[in-house]
Amino acid sequence: MSVFSDMLKNYIHEKDVKVGALAHYCQLERSTIYKFINGKREPMSAELVEQIAYFIKLTPLETHQLRESWKMARMGEDAYYIRKSVEHFLCDFPNKSTPPSCNFTPPPRKFSQTSFPHPELSSAKFQTGNRFFCPSDFIVGSR
Predict the structure, then answer these.
(1) Closest CA to 77 of 64, 67, 68, 87
(2) How far is Cα 7 from Cα 96, in angstroms, rounded to an integer?
(3) Predicted TM-score (pTM) above 0.70
(4) Do residues 41 and 32 lie in contact, with contact meaning Cβ atoms separated by under 8 Å?
(5) Is 124 in a helix, a strand, or coil?
(6) Per-residue pLDDT tens digits for 85-118
(7) Which residues contact 139 (CB under 8 A, 6 or more apart)?
(8) Which of 58, 81, 85, 82 is nearest to 3 (CA)?
(9) 19, β-bridge pairs
(10) What are the distances in angstroms from CA 85 to CA 28, 72, 101?
């Protein structure tokens, strides 16, 4: 059984819907509706799922859940959840035209002569008092 068939079976039972009347409304054989309910077959189109939801008188949320369960049954649970996670990522990806929601600027770092981050520059031969002497190799664009 699929998620769709379980959900359809529950809605038909909750709303006390007659399968023959649903089949007549959707212009399908009653056996086809039973195949949907038993998970042996899925509806052929999203429009048919909408027709079923309309006849059962599902709420918009229930209709959405039925439609999503139909998509899951059609493509498989793994593929469905992978696609949903990609969709979620793309929808929530920050827009470059909008500023970031968190303005984080790191505090300025203070270096003492003993804790300079570059080991060559912190050696005694490059230090003179409170100032650092940098050879031209370390200065960007000075060749």
Answers:
(1) 68
(2) 41
(3) no
(4) yes
(5) helix
(6) 998 888 888 766 655 555 555 556 555 554 445 5
(7) none
(8) 81
(9) none
(10) 35, 13, 22
